[in-house]
Amino acid sequence: MTDHALRKLRQDSRLAELAAFPFDFDLSRAGHGHVEPVRLASGGPIEVVAGTGAGGTYFVCADGSMLYADSEGGAGIIGSTVDEALAVVIGLPCWFDYVDLSPQDGEEAILARVAEAEEELREDYGIDEARAELRAALGLPELSPVELVTLLHTALLRTEPDFLLLTEEEGFAYRLLDEHPRPPLWEPVLAQGRADLALLREGDRAAWHSVADDPVRRRLALRAAQFDREDGDLDLLRHLLRRETESSMTDELRLAAVLVGLHGDVTDLPLLYEVRETDFDTHCGLSEIPEPGADAAELLRWAEELDESMFGTDPADEPLATWTELALDQGMTELARAALIRALDEIFLDQSTLRRPGDPARLETSRISWLADELERAGDLPQALRAQRLHATLQETAWDRISGRLAQARLERACGQLPQAEGSLASIRDLLADPRDDSLRHWAHVNFGRFIAEEHYALTRALADGDHLQEARTLLTAADAILGELSGNAAKGVRELAEETAERLRDFRGLS
User: Fold this and answer.
1) In 434-511, which ranges are continuous DSSP H helix?
2) Which domain of life does the UniProt lineage start with (predicted)?
């Protein structure tokens, strides 16, 4: 199936009228657009091709899939091509009432639901005659309701991650049209690790080296071993543990040490001690590993306690960070992005989830900061900025508020939102002038002050490059004032940047 049917509708007004009424696929509504500006999280193009009387919109995506968005914040793929989607829309005039159906519901239940809904339509519209005429004219196959529900169900499951629809201005994700279960994030992320673990268990030494030589495959294999533990894995775990030291102190290095320790073999204590002493970071991160000479009970106690507190055997218990980080490491960008955006939306909708268990009057905002970092790593600067703006507004001390605004200004500059970045830096200067607490008493003597000055100079250059010369000169004056307050060590690394920025502005003055 292609877009043949859509082209026929556009060429034949009689067919277009039939599609609009009674099948509610109205080409004339395309010119009105959707009820609000929207975009795909992936950045791919979408084209409005039709609308419904209730304010819903049909979009065609770059790969030909048809995305439907209703007027109440729901969206989903309804066909892998336009023709397939039209087969569903025309074959199932009440298709939106069937998004909860799947082939597993059985033929009898599907036919009963469709018959009941269409009987009500037949009281007012001649849908059978119109459907037959459209199918014949558009070259659409005559599929049974069961086949059409199967097409619809398959299409809906393709919506995420590649077709996640967002509001353009706020960046919030549309909810899915259906509530069908999807595989948990860890399943596709861990698939390579499971395959590699099976390969390692076959004992082929060439495979051992190919897996262990690749940092990402090595980490995934260790995660797979975390959730699928076998007594015969000790040798391959030792091999992965030795090689994971190349990445220094990682969660997977700690995991590998725990998995080895859980076998309770005291002959592994020298290896564990050697791993611990790889570098300063591993020494600190694995400081509680028993010393050589400890007995099996002590080794097991250490491994079991750490396993219970940090790992375990259920992938569903792992924090989101484990799977989004491994997804990004494998290039599964859209999979990670969708999960991160959904997590950020949940916080926006209910900030009470940030309350500290032991101190509910205060918020723990590190999760928002982590989301900002991960979204930036995923290349989604607008979403990273959305997270960072929320993070900045929730800070309590002057130091933390400035730190939040500083990261916000950097992202605004990276997104080309230069006036907003100017405003963020202005709020920082206001806080420096009137902090209202004592958290900033040493700001000018440490790297914090250097970072503030550096962002002022970086934005000055961006303003100049954007031909905002007056704003750049004003900000340069403010940057120089901040530099003047820094102590010798803090100012040392900034003076060269200050001179280069001033020279840059002089060059622009000469050009003007």
Assistant:
1) 447-465, 469-485, 488-511
2) Bacteria
